């Protein structure tokens, strides 16, 4: 296994880092951190950042050129995410469209669907949200009950989705809906549905952080056009499962790069509090630093595998489980070590500059739930990687 980057990878990294330094210099970061921001303004800042990235050709990098990509390799894409995380770039608002729906259209969609939806998805003119989870179908997604019934040429959608990220800002939603109640997996179809129509209602869900980043989406006979089905009727489950695997590896180096910055902040905070010399503090920080390097080494190992043509397998759960649980441990340690300082950051005149650890400690819990909870990742690892016997 070769864990070294080639000269062309290093050249790409340098070019990107320089580009980020030029384009991400103030006022982006200042604007993004302005405590006066309301959620709509924040969303618009992110949308503008997405347009800048798109114009420079950094979005959908690994897609074919004819669909706005640049045919980049998995390694270049991983370098892209690593550098944007290291630079603390704003997250793009169309993340679900570009990371999940885009690949679905490229691999399973018709030419017409690609032409109609991909350009506006990349530019951020049309924002997408993902309508998979339901009140009784999360980890067990195939239990979904939202139904799509034929109505002339088209379909009518009825049911409820939940935890829909950016539902309040989205123009379109990609929906898994049941077209055959008697077939658990083969009875699911992948629809593209406009949000702004009679028959769709989005309600924000207030989170512990005070934001409503996600919402509930209610369908009451909403129209879904037949030509807006991705793949064929009954192929929704297969498409949804395969698109999730296309993204594997993209984040391999991003989290360790982001946590480098977080760790720097934590060490600086401990120094300011005069506790950096304490053996118990050094032990905690040392463990976090070492584990971040373990995460980076695992990411490099994954990428080396992809580069040599390995297909992503159930081992991908190691990465998801590790970064999400690590984020919790890091934030909890910061709260413990920085004490009141950790709670007074960012939105107070008494704040020290830097991380908002109190916010991070609340937000990071989400990472252990979305995209397969930690329990589900452990199940995958025990069954499919370690081949342990089923618990009875
Ligand atoms: C920040 C965030 C954003 C999200 N965005 C979206 C989105 O845009 N679109 C969308 O469709 N969904 C979204 N989700 C929903 C997410 O996919 C679900 O929350 C997730 O699949 C878990 O489902 P659930 O919440 O119904 O929990 P459940 O599946 O009800 O799980 C409850 C608990 O039981 C455990 N559990 C469940 N089954 C098992 C099992 N077999 N073995 C052991 N333990 C088990 C789980 O780990 C969990 O601790 C988002 C979630 C979060 C947190």
Search tags:
alpha+beta, Butyryl-CoA Dehydrogenase, subunit A, domain 2, Butyryl-CoA Dehydrogenase, subunit A, domain 3, 13 helices, 14% strand, 392 residues, Butyryl-Coa Dehydrogenase, subunit A, domain 1, single chain, four-stranded mixed sheet, binds flavin-adenine dinucleotide, 47% helix
Walkthrough of the structure:
With 392 residues, this protein is α+β, with helices and mostly antiparallel strands. The protein has 3 domains: 86 residues, Butyryl-Coa Dehydrogenase, subunit A, domain 1; 108 residues, Butyryl-CoA Dehydrogenase, subunit A, domain 2 (Beta Barrel), CATH 2.40.110; 137 residues, Butyryl-CoA Dehydrogenase, subunit A, domain 3, CATH 1.20.140.10. Helix content is 47%, strand content 14%. The chain has 13 helices and 8 strands. A 4-stranded mixed sheet has the order 1-4-5-8. A 4-stranded antiparallel sheet has the order 2-3-7-6, with no helix packed on it. Strand 2 and strand 3 form a beta hairpin. Helix 1 packs parallel to helix 4 and helix 4 packs parallel to helix 8. The radius of gyration is 22 Å and the shape is globular. It starts with 6 loop residues before the first helix and ends in a 7-residue tail after the last helix. Bound molecules: flavin-adenine dinucleotide. Flavin-adenine dinucleotide binds next to strand 1, strand 3 and helix 13.
């Amino acid at each position: 296994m070769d864990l070294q980057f080639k000269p062309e990878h290093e050249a790409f990294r340098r070019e990107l880092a320089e580009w980020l330094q030029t384009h991400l210099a103030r006022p982006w970061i200042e604007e993004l951190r302005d405590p006066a921001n309301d959620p709509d303004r924040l969303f618009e800042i992110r949308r503008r950042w997405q347009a800048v990235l798109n114009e420079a050709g950094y979005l959908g990098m690994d897609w074919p050129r004819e669909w706005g990509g640049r045919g980049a390799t998995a390694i270049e894409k991983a370098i892209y995410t690593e550098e944007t995380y290291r630079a603390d770039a704003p997250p793009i608002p169309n993340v679900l469209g570009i990371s999940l729906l885009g690949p679905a259209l490229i691999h399973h969609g018709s030419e017409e669907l690609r032409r109609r939806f991909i350009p506006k998805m990349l530019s951020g003119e049309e924002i997408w949200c993902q309508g998979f989870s339901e009140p009784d179908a999360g980890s067990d997604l195939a239990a979904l009950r939202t139904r799509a019934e034929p109505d002339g040429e088209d379909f009518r959608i009825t049911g409820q989705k939940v935890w829909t990220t950016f539902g309040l800002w989205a123009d379109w939603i990609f929906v898994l809906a049941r077209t055959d109640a008697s077939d658990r997996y083969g009875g699911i179809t992948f629809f593209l549905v406009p949000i702004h129509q009679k028959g769709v209602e989005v309600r924000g869900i207030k989170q512990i952080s005070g934001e409503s980043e996600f919402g509930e989406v209610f369908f009451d006979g909403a129209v879904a056009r037949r030509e807006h089905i991705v793949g064929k009727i009954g192929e929704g489950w297969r498409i949804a499962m395969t698109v999730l695997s296309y993204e594997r590896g993209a984040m391999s180096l991003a989290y360790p790069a982001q946590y480098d910055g977080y760790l720097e902040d934590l060490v600086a905070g401990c120094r300011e509090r005069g506790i950096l010399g304490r053996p118990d503090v050094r032990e905690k920080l040392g463990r976090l630093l070492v584990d971040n390097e373990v995460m980076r080494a695992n990411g490099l190992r994954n990428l080396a595998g992809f580069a040599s043509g390995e297909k992503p397998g159930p081992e991908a759960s190691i990465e998801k489980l590790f970064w999400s649980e690590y984020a919790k441990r890091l934030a909890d340690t910061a709260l413990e070590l920085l004490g009141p300082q950790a709670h007074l950051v960012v939105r107070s005149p008494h704040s020290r500059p830097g991380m908002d650890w109190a916010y991070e400690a609340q937000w990071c819990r989400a990472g252990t739930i979305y995209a397969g909870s930690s329990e589900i990742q452990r199940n995958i690892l025990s069954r499919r990687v370690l081949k342990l016997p089923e618990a009875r």
